């Protein structure tokens, strides 16, 4: 039955974050954003706050997606 699931649904329902690596991509984007701010010589507090908010949002989104997929997997069994 697991082979019938799409790969993304299977990955998140089984609890693996190997495909696609969403968290490392978002961390990389945040680090690049902050590095660019550093190279310009200014890091306003608002930029740091926006970065933290974006990371929190995507983290919650990833957890929600994982829970939804897990529930769909339970329902299909």
Structure description:
There is one protein chain. The protein has 77 residues and is mostly helical. It is built from 3 helices and no strands. Helix 2 (22-39) packs antiparallel against helix 3 (45-76). The longest helix has 32 residues, at 45-76. The protein is elongated, with a radius of gyration of 17 Å.
Number of strands: 0
- Give the SSE string: HHH
The helix count comes to 3
Low-confidence stretches: 5-18
Radius of gyration: 17 Å
Proportion in β-strands: under 5%
Tell me the span between the first and last alpha carbons: 8 Å
Coarse morphology: elongated
**Average pLDDT value?**
68
Number of domains: 1
Biggest pleated-sheet summary: none
Q: Helix content range of the residues, please? A: over 70%
Structural class designation? mainly alpha
Short account of what is shown:
Keywords: Membrane, Transmembrane, Transmembrane helix. With 77 residues, the chain is mainly alpha-helical.
Secondary structure elements and pairings:
Elements: H1 7-13, H2 22-39, H3 45-76
Q: Can you tag this structure with a few keywords?
A:
77 residues, single chain, transmembrane
């Amino acid at each position: 039955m697991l082979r019938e699931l799409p790969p993304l649904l299977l990955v998140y329902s089984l609890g693996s974050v190997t495909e696609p690596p969403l968290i490392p991509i978002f961390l990389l984007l945040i680090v690049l954003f902050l590095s660019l701010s550093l190279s310009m010589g200014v890091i306003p507090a608002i930029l740091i706050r926006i970065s933290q908010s974006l990371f929190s949002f995507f983290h919650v989104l990833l957890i929600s997606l994982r829970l939804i997929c897990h529930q769909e997997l339970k329902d299909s069994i």
